[in-house]
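Could you join me in thinking about how sequence relates to backbone shape in a protein? Would you write everything just below, so we can both look at the same thing?
***
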Amino acid sequence: MTERVGFIGLGVMGAPMARHLLAAGYPLTVHSRSATPVDALVAEGATRTSTPAEVASASDVVITMVPDTPDVELVLFGDAGVAEGATAGSLVIDMSTIDPIRTRAFAERLAANEIAMLDAPVSGGQVGAEAGTLSIMVGGPDEASARARPLFEAMGSTIVHVGPSGAGQVTKACNQLVIASAVEAVGEAFVLAAKAGVDPAKVRQALLGGFASSKVLDLHGQRMLDHAFEPGFRSVLMAKDGRIVVSAADGLEAPIPGFRAVAERLEAMLPAGRGDLDYAALVTLLEDEAGLDLHVGP
């Protein structure tokens, strides 16, 4: 592979994504706040660095996968950030989920130094990251998107270039709006059924055969019934994404009345001490309010 790739942010999503790039034959330079995933990838053939600037100076393409908008800004433009080490003609790909408007500003700052930027958030969770089957939503220049396509194909199975800078993050905001709203709706349906004395498991089975069928009803619905809330995606991160959706809608004057209620439910998970649970645990708020427990079994 001719492109030297840097990867910054080796969390539950970033580490397996970086591993797929290494397996595809890309020379890989890595950096993360936690030493453990760095050690693991170095043992597999990656190169360790101490700062984002060092990653950029050793790479043609730098990928960032960090929690939030301020984290991306710090990695790109903070002391010893990517902008210090990147050279003209290099490419930055942010695969985090962050604010679309700020994303456009970041791209403009990098473009002033002849550094292209793509925003390419993902959907599919830890399972998709590990399997290399992520859905990748790409915003940015056509030429940069084409250049990055082989990298994306190493990490995902659905890659869509949706538009100019920020379009990927707008698409991810739409994704989170739909998914979180569906999780809340499934939880409400199960609680309604239980309050009426109807088995929620059988309701789920029936709904999966009709228009209400969805991956959310199938996977997260079963999680709710099993109370299996080991995080694939933590509630604290979905709450953060909810803030991004609301902020974007406010800035664009786009009405999202249904999701505003869901965003409030996500925020309520945090003071309830449930931020580290999977966001399917939204149903537990409903259970508390209804005075019931959907979980049946050991």
